[in-house]
Design a protein that fits this description.
Layout: H1 2-23, E1 35-38, E2 51-57, E3 72-82, E4 88-94, E5 99-101, H2 104-114, E6 118-124, E7 135-141, E8 145-154, E9 160-165, E10 171-175, H3 186-189, E11 201-208, E12 212-217, H4 223-231, E13 238-239, E14 261-267, E15 272-279, E16 285-292, E17 317-322, H5 324-333
Antiparallel strand pairs: 1-6, 2-3, 2-7, 3-4, 4-5, 6-10, 7-8, 8-9, 9-10, 11-12, 11-14, 13-17, 14-15, 15-16, 16-17
Length: 335
């Protein structure tokens, strides 16, 4: 009987295990979403894009990079024509408070990312109530093309980001390679160069304390070398408008504070830009930047302040900071 009982017990155990297994959910390969090949933006439209706007919903009690509480933040990246004669185009980054020249390499990387063919998965035939998206990307081409993509949270286990396209009802997932661009800080998007607009400079004038000045131009024997040394210098953080009181409005001449130094750069296309340097107590410098439009030439620096002869024609003026090392390096180039 003992042997029979053991056999019966074994059979009973097998039946119990079978019943448990039979009630477990069966994972079928057919239930997993099948990937398909697509891109956020048709690759054929890459070079036609003229504006990308990234909009972000603010979290409760969250502040922007200027310390302000807003319902939402945005960054507008726009391709613009600068001047009517030279045919120069560039990208501008604008957060509603500050406008700077954007880093073209960074914009190109974003466009490559948006037009990359990638595996995508349909996870729902209905968007349902997903709440506020992390980032809404609106892509335009002079009003001829319009694409809006809502990006939601990224799954930390799969590293896939959920998204929805305005013209489609479904929700999708794909590997997250795009959230690295979800930045509203203009410092992130700005052209890192101290000299912002001059891609083909023909002259530099460096003037300290409104008196001593040094000029190098395309006719100077060391122009190529010194021009390169100036062009590789980099600025620091873009300063919020309220840090720079002089940008609150056009100051009266009597209110103007003389800068420690001023750098004026002229480009072969007729563009000019002026950077005014203001020394800080910690050894760094606050710099006021102005871009002046085409055909505004600079008179001889020994006749008058360079900035006084320029007429501002484009809305591109902002402030940034540089280190004392950068200022000393710039100064040494003109000695």
């Amino acid at each position: 009987m003992t042997s029979l009982n053991k056999k019966l017990s074994a059979i009973a155990l097998i039946l119990v295990v079978f019943c448990i297994v039979s009630f477990l959910p069966i994972v079928s390969k057919k239930s997993a979403p099948k990937p398909f090949q697509s891109a956020f933006l048709n690759p054929s439209h890459k070079d036609e894009v003229t504006e990308i706007v990234l909009t972000f919903q603010q979290k409760e009690n969250e502040r922007n990079s200027y310390g302000e509480t807003l319902e939402e933040q945005f960054i507008s990246l726009k391709k613009m024509d600068v001047g009517s004669g030279a045919g120069k185009t560039l990208w501008i980054a604008d957060d509603g408070l500050t406008t700077v020249r954007a880093d073209e390499k960074l914009i190109e990387n974003l466009l490559i990312n948006l037009t990359k063919i990638r595996k995508m998965y349909t996870i729902s035939d209905s968007k349902g109530d997903q709440g506020s998206c992390t980032c809404a990307a609106t892509i335009r081409n002079n009003d001829k093309m319009y694409t809006k993509i809502d990006f939601f949270a990224t799954n930390s286990l799969t590293n896939r980001i959920m998204l929805g396209v305005e013209t489609k009802k479904s929700l999708y997932e794909t590997d997250d390679t795009v959230s690295q661009f979800f930045q509203t800080n203009v410092s992130f998007w700005s052209n890192p160069g101290l000299v912002q607009m001059a891609d083909a400079p023909i002259s530099f004038i460096f003037q300290e304390n409104g008196k001593n000045f040094s000029k190098i131009d395309e006719f100077s024997s060391e122009f190529a070398k010194k021009s390169h040394e100036v062009m590789v210098l980099r600025h620091g953080m873009i300063l919020p408008p309220q840090v720079n009181e002089r940008f609150a409005g056009e100051p009266r001449q009597s209110d103007a504070i003389d800068p420690s130094a001023r750098l004026t750069v002229a480009d072969k296309n007729g563009f000019s830009e002026v950077i005014s340097f203001y020394a800080r107590g910690d050894g760094s410098y606050r710099c006021e930047y102005r871009f002046f439009g085409e055909n505004r030439t600079v008179r001889q620096a020994d006749e008058v302040h360079a900035a006084d002869t320029l007429r501002f024609t484009d809305d591109l003026r902002f402030a940034f900071e540089i280190s004392g090392w950068t200022y000393d390096r710039l100064r040494s180039i003109f000695q």
